[in-house]
């Protein structure tokens, strides 16, 4: 029945063992008195110590510590040098261990109906005393060792401090009083119990006059009257009850009651919690008997011998839902864990597990038999049992996914009392529970502020629950493990006994049985009173063969067994899924006798909005292929399989699981037509479906997959919550229970493209339906429409990714505290009063609430401290009136508060009540409003999140952009960038008044420009969104700020300048664009600068932009096309640049001295042969003459009129990007240049037109502006006006003087 969780081999016998309640720590002591602390989760040893002798490491450390403190006196022998002797007991002590010890005693006593503890308002937990320190306490014969596992510092208390008596056992005394100090009681060899203070390290009291022999065991518990008691067992066989409530520590205490428990000595004592009754004491003695005692009358209830001829050495109280009839575990020196049934049943002892079968054969030597020497059950996780054996430590696990046999019923609308149905001892019972607090902290009352700064509705303290149990007259037919479930309407409850197998369906109104049969698989439909089941044929019993019988009877029995096995296999293979529905009168009706699906046997059913069926298969799929899911295509199973190999200390079950991939054996069917709606999936451990059929969760071993169901199945993500046992949906909240924590997952599906398509499709369907209704009412005339001018509303629905946020609500551990080496003063040499320590602790404690304006209590933490999770497996009831309800294995209801504003606001937002969430946010510290706003944004409430008063401007800008409130986004940008008054004054509340531009002061300009540069991307995004939505005023004002920063040289760089230039051109901001061109040129954005210059109509600026940014080819083409006088200069510069690129340059390393001496030498003349070089490279526009050839001049008459005629005629022709074909003119014969030295293209020139005084006359060329349709005359003057030589003056070829084109042609 158990499986192996972890195994640690050892050479010696493990004789002492103990588990930490909250951390995965296990401390053991072997037969050689070696003590080790082992992390059974990570399979690592935390600490080892030789407690029986002298640990030289601790001795050297103690000497070094004394030297560091300045104490060089070696005359006194350090306590670390004292030999410890035999190890008698090991245990952990910290705030967690102290809390859960008190919790166990308190709730065990509260089971009594007349208990005083059951009438108290709240459970008062003991005040923290160790402050984050985790003590390992080792009780040795000669001394007690207190080792802090955090600081690795120890304190040894020799037996001389305790009247020089040998120490045999110990127990921690805890009370819930405010000034309680940690105390530890030691049982000694003289029968006296001595109490030691862990603050002063002095003995504070004695318990005398009880035992005449050595004290072997101690234990504390709380009586039903609320009194703390100490019980001790000794070698004289007596069981003595002492009072632990005495505050005066200066006198000896006498026993309250003495009982004769065993003929021999008392070996161990254990406290057992009994459902609905007073707790019981379990004792085992050396007389091989086990006795059970009542803690009210202290009478013996029963006495048994668990294992004949063997004495028990360990006992543990056990309550597991998978074995409801077992309540005690014990061990003897064999290889079994023995379980004792409850006296209501047979009260027999049977082996629960044979430990040898859990281990692999190589773990045990061939000639060695496994023997158990100690055993302990986990105090908070009853499915974990640790045993110490002669081969090592064995950690067993017993069905951790089993849940209590209880199911909650729907609460009537408006009702405050909730109910649940559970089964115990073959009886159906009704559990009613509700809060008994007059002020419910979940509904809005935060509570008053106490003197210590703690709210009266403190989530750290448990809320008191008023609950009653009622018996139902209908009995249950079986007493084995049962699984309960309820229909969607709450009118029917089903009970399945999988071990029988059998099932029954009860009607809640009168608890009559409406359906029953044989079967172990059962599942409800969450949308109706339908259920699916797999009926099982009962296998006939095999007759027992008495030893010594005839061989014929043996053969007959073997044949009958084989026949029964074959019948069982045939029945299992032929079993099919049957679907039934309950009619209104309660009678069942078969909807489907079998679902036609697959031929494999059915091994699992999962109910919900869809029916999940798991089939038995041996096919294994590669982990890569597990992510490919047909039809659904959205459930990756990445959590299965790992690249890392198993650890050497891993359990063999985990090795087996990691080596095999999960099979694809899970099929989803529709409840309506019983057809498959998906491909094969990996079988989940459990499923949870939202009542609104919007979300579903599939749980696997390491994670939970969450998917959306509307408008179609869509994978949202998975959360890394491992070993989850159950969950319940509450709108967009998934509350998950694990063996150690309670988690809350907030879920939002986001907005996907399929959602937009669905919305569009629904609108079209509505329009068609409206049109069909109109035709049905008014005939064909309804189709006649009149076209009217329609105003199109450009509504943006942005896509939003899904959101999954996990918040831990409860766990077993205390919240992280201040490290002890920072906050806790050294107390080893100074004796301090307990009250002073308590005041200091309260003074340093961080308050969890603060008082805001108007006396409203405001939480200063983002989330509340983790509440205490109830012990053991839990059933999630759900959220009722803002309280999360849970039911434990003892059928006790627990309430977890959701009243903290950080949790409350999220729950309201997930529920859809965003207005109330914003109101509750006033009770949350403003420093946490950004986090809350991010959550609301992920949930799709960006506009409502803008109403949170404490959000930052940066987040406010993002929210305003998401909600399309661009004016508010612009205001946030102006505030963040300090550019509200850049170019403007008189800022008011109106957007036009706020953004009206005026002159800005010089001292504020630098800050404004720096702010604009910092948020340049946000300005550009705002401009784009404003342009897309038609809000030109917002876009223009944001663009003005960017242009102001762009006018400052070096402020904006790269793509930002380019984007600003394009947007200024788009908005027609020519004045600001002209101030931006120089910055574009300096940043190397030549194309953008030329584009801006083209818009401005400045051809010279275009050429400058290209020339300064190295784009000489564009500059030459532009100058050639427009007939610019700088054509020749640009062409020469372009060709020289090309020449440098083609000529190889030899680089030589020359030091500074050589370079200086070389500069002083005169240049040497080279010969004519050296002067010969290769012909230069010339790449010219079409029609342009060579740059190296001498110009050819054509003489023309002096008269200006005939020379101007062709020029004026050419002005009417359009300007082209490339020059026209050159006009051939007959030239006088000249000397032909060398073809090797000069190009063949000859330049074509004309004489300059001269005036009467001999100076060259200006030629008029008209150009058309790019923005305005007018002509502007530009003059091209001679480069040398004083020269009469036409070759030295400027020249204008006839083929270049044309009419300028549009701006687009120039570009």
Please give a handful of descriptors for the protein shown.
27 helices; 61 strands; 1307 residues; alpha+beta; 5-stranded mixed β-sheet
Task: Describe the overall structure.
With 1307 residues, the protein is an alpha+beta fold. Helices cover 23% and strands 26% of the residues. The protein has 27 helices and 61 strands. The strands form 16 sheets. A 5-stranded mixed beta sheet has the order 10-11-12-13-17, with no helix packed on it. Helix 8 packs antiparallel against helix 9, helix 17 crosses helix 18 and helix 17 (1032-1046) crosses helix 19 (1070-1082). The longest helix has 26 residues, at 753-778. It is globular. The two termini are 85 Å apart. Residues 119-123, 438-461, 544-549, 620-659, 790-794, 817-856, 985-1000 and 1199-1307 have low confidence and may be disordered.
């Amino acid at each position: 029945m158990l499986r192996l969780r972890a195994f640690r081999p050892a050479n010696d016998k493990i004789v002492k063992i103990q588990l930490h309640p909250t951390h995965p720590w296990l401390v053991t002591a072997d037969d050689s008195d070696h003590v080790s602390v082992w992390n059974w989760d990570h399979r690592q040893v935390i600490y080892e110590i030789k407690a029986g002798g002298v640990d030289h490491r601790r001795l050297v450390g103690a000497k070094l510590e004394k030297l560091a403190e300045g104490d060089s006196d070696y005359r006194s022998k350090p306590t670390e040098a004292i030999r410890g002797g035999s190890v008698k007991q090991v245990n952990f002590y910290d705030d967690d261990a102290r809390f859960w010890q008190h919790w166990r005693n308190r709730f065990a006593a509260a089971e009594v109906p007349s208990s005083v503890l059951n009438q108290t308002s709240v459970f008062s937990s003991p005040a923290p005393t160790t402050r984050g320190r985790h003590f390992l306490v080792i009780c040795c014969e000669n001394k007690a060792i207190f080792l802090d596992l955090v600081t690795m510092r120890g304190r040894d208390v020799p037996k001389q401090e305790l009247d020089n008596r040998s120490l045999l056992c110990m127990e921690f005394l805890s009370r819930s009083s405010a000034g309680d100090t940690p105390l530890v009681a030691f049982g000694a060899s003289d029968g006296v119990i001595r109490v030691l203070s862990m603050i002063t390290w002095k003995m504070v009291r004695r318990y005398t006059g009880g035992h005449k022999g050595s004290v072997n065991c101690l234990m504390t518990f709380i009586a039903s009257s609320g009194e703390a008691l100490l019980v001790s067992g000794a070698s004289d066989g007596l069981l003595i009850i002492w009072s632990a409530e005495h505050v005066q520590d200066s006198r000896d205490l006498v026993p309250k009651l003495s009982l004769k428990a065993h003929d021999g000595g008392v070996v161990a004592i254990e406290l057992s919690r009994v459902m609905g009754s007073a707790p019981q004491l379990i004792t085992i003695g050396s007389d091989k008997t086990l006795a059970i005692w009542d803690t009210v009358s202290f009478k013996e209830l029963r006495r048994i011998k668990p294992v004949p001829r063997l004495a028990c050495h360990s006992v543990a109280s056990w309550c597991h839902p998978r074995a409801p009839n077992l309540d005690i575990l014990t061990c003897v020196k064999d290889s079994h864990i023995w379980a004792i049934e409850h006296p209501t049943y047979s009260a027999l002892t049977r082996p629960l597990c044979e430990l040898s079968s859990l281990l692999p054969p190589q773990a045990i030597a061939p000639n060695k038999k496994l023997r158990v020497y100690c055993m302990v059950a986990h105090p908070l996780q009853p499915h974990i049992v640790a045993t110490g054996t002669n081969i090592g430590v064995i950690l067993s696990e017993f069905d951790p996914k089993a849940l209590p046999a209880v199911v909650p019923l729907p609460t009537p609308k408006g009702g405050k009392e909730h109910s649940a149905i559970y089964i115990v001892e073959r009886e159906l019972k009704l559990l009613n529970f509700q809060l008994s607090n007059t002020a419910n902290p979940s509904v809005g009352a935060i509570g008053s502020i106490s003197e210590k700064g703690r709210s009266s509705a403190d989530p750290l303290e448990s809320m008191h629950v008023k609950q009653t149990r009622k018996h139902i007259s209908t009995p249950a037919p079986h007493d084995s493990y049962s699984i309960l479930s309820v229909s969607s309407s709450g009118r029917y409850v089903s009970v399945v006994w999988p071990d029988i197998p059998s099932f029954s369906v009860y009607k809640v109104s009168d608890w009559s049985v409406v359906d029953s049969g044989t079967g172990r698989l059962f599942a409800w439909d969450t949308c109706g009173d339908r259920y699916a089941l797999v009926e099982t044929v009962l296998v006939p019993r095999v007759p027992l063969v008495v030893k010594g019988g005839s061989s014929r009877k043996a053969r007959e029995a073997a044949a009958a067994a084989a026949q029964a096995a074959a019948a069982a296999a045939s029945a299992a293979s032929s079993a099919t899924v049957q679907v039934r529905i309950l009619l209104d009168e309660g009678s069942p009706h078969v909807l489907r006798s079998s679902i036609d699906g697959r031929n494999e046997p059915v091994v699992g059913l999962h109910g919900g909005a869809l029916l999940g069926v798991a089939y038995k298969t041996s096919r294994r799929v590669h982990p890569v292929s597990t992510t490919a899911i047909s039809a659904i295509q959205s459930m990756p199973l990445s959590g299965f399989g790992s690249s890392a190999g198993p650890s050497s200390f891993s359990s063999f079950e985990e090795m087996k699981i990691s080596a095999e991939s999960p099979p694809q054996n899970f099929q989803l069917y529709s409840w309506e037509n019983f057809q498959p709606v998906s491909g094969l999936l990996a079988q989940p451990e459990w499923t949870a479906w939202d009542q609104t059929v919007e979300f579903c969760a599939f749980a696997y071993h390491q994670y939970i997959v969450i998917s959306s169901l509307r408008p179609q199945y869509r994978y949202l993500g998975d959360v890394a919550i491992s070993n989850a046992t159950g969950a319940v949906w509450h709108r967009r909240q998934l509350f998950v229970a694990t063996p150690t924590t309670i988690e809350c997952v907030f879920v939002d599906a986001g907005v996907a493209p399929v959602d937009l398509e669905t919305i569009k499709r629904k609108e079209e369907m509505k329009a068609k339906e409206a049109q069909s209704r109109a035709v049905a009412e008014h005939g064909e005339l309804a189709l006649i429409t009149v076209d009217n001018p329609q105003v199109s509303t450009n509504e943006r629905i942005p896509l939003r990714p899904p959101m999954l946020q996990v918040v831990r609500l409860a766990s077993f551990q205390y919240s992280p505290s201040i490290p002890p080496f920072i906050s806790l003063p050294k107390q080893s040499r100074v004796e301090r009063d307990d009250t002073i320590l308590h005041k200091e602790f309260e003074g340093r404690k961080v308050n969890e609430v603060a008082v805001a304006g108007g006396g409203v209590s405001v939480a200063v933490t983002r989330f509340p401290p983790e509440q205490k999770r109830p012990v053991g497996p839990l059933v999630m009831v759900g959220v009722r009136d803002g309280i999360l309800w849970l039911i434990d294995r003892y059928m006790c209801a627990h309430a977890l508060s959701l009243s903290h504003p950080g949790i409350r606001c999220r729950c309201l937002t997930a529920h859809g009540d965003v207005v109330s969430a914003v109101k509750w946010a006033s009770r949350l510290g403003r420093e946490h409003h950004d986090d809350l706003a991010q959550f609301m944004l992920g949930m799709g409430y960006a506009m409502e999140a803008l109403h949170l008063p404490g959000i930052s401007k940066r987040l406010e800008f993002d929210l305003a952009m998401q909600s399309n409130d661009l004016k508010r986004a612009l205001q946030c940008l102006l505030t963040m960038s300090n550019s509200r008054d850049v170019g403007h004054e008189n800022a008011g509340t109106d957007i036009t008044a706020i953004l009206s531009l005026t002159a800005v002061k010089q001292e504020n300009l630098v800050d404004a420009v720096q702010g604009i540069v910092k948020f340049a991307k946000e300005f550009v995004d705002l401009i784009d969104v404003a342009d897309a939505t038609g809000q030109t005023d917002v876009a223009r004002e944001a663009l003005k700020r960017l242009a102001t920063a762009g006018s400052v040289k070096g402020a904006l760089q790269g793509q930002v300048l380019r984007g600003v230039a394009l947007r200024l051109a788009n908005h027609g901001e020519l004045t600001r664009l002209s101030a931006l061109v120089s910055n574009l040129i300096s940043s190397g954005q030549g194309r953008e600068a030329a584009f801006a210059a083209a818009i401005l109509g400045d051809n010279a600026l275009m050429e400058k932009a290209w020339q300064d940014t190295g784009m000489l080819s564009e500059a030459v083409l532009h100058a050639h096309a427009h007939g610019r006088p700088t054509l020749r200069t640009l062409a020469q510069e372009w060709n020289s640049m090309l020449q440098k690129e083609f000529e190889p340059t030899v680089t030589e390393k020359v030091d500074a001295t050589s370079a200086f001496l070389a500069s002083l030498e005169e240049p040497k003349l080279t010969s004519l042969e050296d002067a010969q070089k290769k012909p230069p490279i010339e790449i010219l526009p079409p029609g342009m003459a060579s740059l190296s050839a001498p110009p050819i001049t054509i003489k023309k008459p002096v008269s200006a009129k005939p020379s101007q005629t062709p020029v004026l005629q050419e002005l009417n022709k359009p300007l082209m990007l490339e020059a026209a074909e050159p006009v051939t003119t007959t030239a006088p014969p000249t000397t032909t240049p060398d073809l090797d030295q000069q190009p063949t293209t000859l330049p074509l020139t004309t004489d300059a037109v001269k005036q009467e005084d001999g100076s060259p006359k200006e030629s008029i060329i008209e150009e058309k502006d790019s923005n305005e349709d007018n002509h502007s005359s530009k003059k091209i003057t001679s480069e040398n006006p004083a020269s009469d030589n036409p070759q030295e003056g400027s020249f204008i070829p006839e083929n270049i003087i044309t009419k300028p084109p549009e701006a687009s042609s120039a570009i």
